[in-house]
Amino acid sequence: MSDEKRPAVRLVEIDGGHEGQRIDNFLLATLKGVPRSHIYRLLRKGEVRVNKGRIKPVYRLRAGDVVRIPPVRVGVRAVQGDVPAGLVARLEEAIRHEDDDLMVLDKPAGLAVHGGSGIPYGLIEALCRMRPALPELALVHRLDRETSGCLLLAKRRSVLLALQAQFQNEEIGKHYLALVKGVWLDGEREVALPLARSRAQGGRRLMQVQPDGRPAVTLFTPRAFYAGATLMAVTLRTGRMHQIRVHAAWQGHPLAGDEAYGDPAFNRHMRKQGLRRLFLHAWRLVFRHPASGEQICIEAPLSGDLAEVLANLPFSGAL
């Protein structure tokens, strides 16, 4: 028996909940398990049509549009079999909050939010297996692969748009814990340095401080001092890629375990203390619930591996 299913042509009428969404993103959410490259190939060949006409991937849907979705072979194994059952169980235990509209989970370090580029599966693929009845489940924001902690997901597009609007209006509190090199002096400090992408190095996308970059603001507050290191509470005012890591490095206090922007000697020292990854954890998320208007505060305690590193360091004092 084949482990694949072949759906028929579908004609989907767009409602108000999908108005304004790009057609490529709509297809990625609708055709779970289909590779991104295949979806773009369908668009290029004109097999996906809107109102019987060809469209480009950047086309934004309108209420009342009729989307033709061609027969696409979706490998069941791509959504279910390749995601280890142990990871699914781990993610079930990592859920910090869930209701009819949204979910917050404590993302494990080392897990990318999406599969691709040599990564067979990511958080979204695992969640497809966990919640097959939620075809619109989507990330409201992102965390780097090496970063652990609170991650917010929406179960419907209307909820997604409402929460993304809160992010854009800087109404969501994103709070992190980070261990940085050296003794952080002068207490709380707001760092406002614009960031732009630099040339990729070794296949990695990196950021750099650049006068004509996008505005980026980070608030650093020392919480505890250790021998040669400081535990910081970090609040993001904006959400640029690698923002905390770049801003900390430009203050002369790179994050422990940061292979891209960090200090190699400091990283070697921290490995001796048991650190095996970037010391960055999204420990608190504060937002307004789109349905009730209630303020929600979700916390994820510092993960065991990072707590053990702190226990191995000589303690100098707390604030």
Low-confidence stretches: 1-5, 75-81
Order of helices and strands: EEHHEEEEHHEEHEEHEEEEEEHHEEHE
In CATH terms, what is the architecture of the largest domain?
Answer: 2-Layer Sandwich
Helical residue percent band = 10-25%
CATH class term of the largest domain = Alpha Beta
Sheet-strand content, in percent, reads 25-35%
CA gyration radius, whole angstroms: 22 Å
The number of strands is: 19
* Overall mean pLDDT: 87
Kindly, what is the distance between the CA atoms of the first and last residues, rounded to a whole number of angstroms?
Answer: 64 Å
Largest sheet: 11 strands, mixed
Our count of helices gives: 9
CATH homologous superfamily label of the largest domain: Pseudouridine synthase
CATH fold title of the largest domain: Pseudouridine synthase
Q: Which overall shape is indicated by the principal axes computed on the Cα atoms?
A: elongated
Describe this structure in a few short sentences.
This protein is α+β, with helices and mostly antiparallel strands.
What descriptors fit this protein?
Pseudouridine synthase
List the SSEs and their pairings.
Blueprint: E1 4-5, E2 10-13, H1 23-30, H2 36-44, E3 49-50, E4 53-54, E5 66-69, E6 74-75, H3 76-81, H4 85-94, E7 95-98, E8 102-107, H5 123-130, E9 138-139, E10 148-154, H6 157-168, E11 173-181, E12 189-192, E13 195-197, E14 207-209, E15 217-226, E16 229-236, H7 243-250, H8 264-272, E17 280-288, E18 295-299, H9 304-312, E19 315-318
Parallel strand pairs: 10-17
Antiparallel strand pairs: 1-6, 2-5, 3-4, 3-5, 7-8, 8-10, 9-10, 11-16, 11-17, 12-15, 13-14, 15-16, 15-19, 17-18
